[in-house]
């Protein structure tokens, strides 16, 4: 039925909407256009409660940071029962009823205002900006892109209304799955942020690469080692597990053996490199395989297959080239892959492919190459001998490195290319600085 929603803020404004319980979510629907403005998936609803001092108030705790959403509902009890029953029947999730952290004490309006963006955001230190960027947000609830300020703090990505500087959303870096930098021929200002839970958010900004470099650096510094930059949105329907759940050993081994040609699953029916690379990337963490021990030969076989069939990458699309390079990155991040780079047949093929790709001067592809090279120069095992060997192989031909340093110089002079600048600086750091390995 018709309900009245109010986001409590300094203006205390609100809009009339419809709430609809669907098969997988509670949907907020525009009264006039019938467009879905927002969806609160059952799996992400942490709890439901009411406000002690306001009749008909319904509060939904949502997402990893337990953000609160306030609605005024005439038939609150009926809606609550329907929502809880549907979540249990459809996906087997039991949504708790009552205030989080203190079931005996009801939530009041002042507490809602304090904690509405999540329990951690009550501490203002989490919301102090390190850098800020003007962007335009593309969202279902707005017919046209809306102006926003994206603020990067030590632990959060904060979105603010530029007219009032009030916080619209605040998401921890730990909740970011990937950042999508769309190729320039699609839109030179467009990017997207994919979260472990909740919808993807799209923005445009003339400072896109500086923004993304700052965001990626902050996310990695906060401990999110799986945050990465991709050239295409994630096809979530191809993933075996939810984004917020790491794959188990069986899933990892299935996709590893498939790309190595040793799987009995249907994945081997179509031995297309792009097909396998996309599925491998979607199901394997960006930081690498977690269960590769005992499968060293399979890892080497997978790398060999990609390199043997990747010689025509220079002729393929940006998205395909980046997907294949990021598959290699995941494989070389393992101990077996790290050591395998010293095999001449592997290192020669990899470097030949990379040098050819770099000649295209494709921003996204070059970034993926530099990120891959960085993985070849460091490993958790602290194997300095292998690291030194890999460094010598990479630096065997200095001509490409002169071009890389020249590229860095050009970007610095122009004040552009923030992502590639970040990748090259990291790469040079691993090549030249202790404690990664001694200078040649």
What does this 3D model show about the protein?
By secondary structure, the chain is α+β, with helices and mostly antiparallel strands. The chain is 38% helix and 20% strand. The chain is built from 13 helices and 15 strands. The chain has an 8-stranded mixed β-sheet. Strands 4-3-2-1-7-6-5 form a 7-stranded antiparallel β-sheet. Helix 7 packs parallel to helix 10 and helix 12 packs across helix 13. About 2% of the residues have low confidence.
Summary?
The chain has 440 residues and is an alpha+beta fold. 38% of the residues lie in helices and 20% in strands. The strands form two sheets. The protein has an eight-stranded mixed β-sheet with strand order 11-10-9-8-14-13-12-15.
Strand and helix map with partners:
Elements: E1 2-6, E2 14-21, E3 25-30, E4 36-41, E5 45-49, E6 57-62, E7 67-72, H1 76-91, H2 109-115, E8 131-138, E9 146-152, E10 156-160, E11 167-172, E12 176-181, E13 190-195, E14 201-204, H3 208-221, E15 228-230, H4 249-260, H5 273-283, H6 296-309, H7 318-332, H8 335-340, H9 344-358, H10 363-375, H11 384-394, H12 399-414, H13 418-432
Parallel strand pairs: 12-15
Antiparallel strand pairs: 1-2, 1-7, 2-3, 3-4, 5-6, 6-7, 8-9, 8-14, 9-10, 10-11, 12-13, 13-14
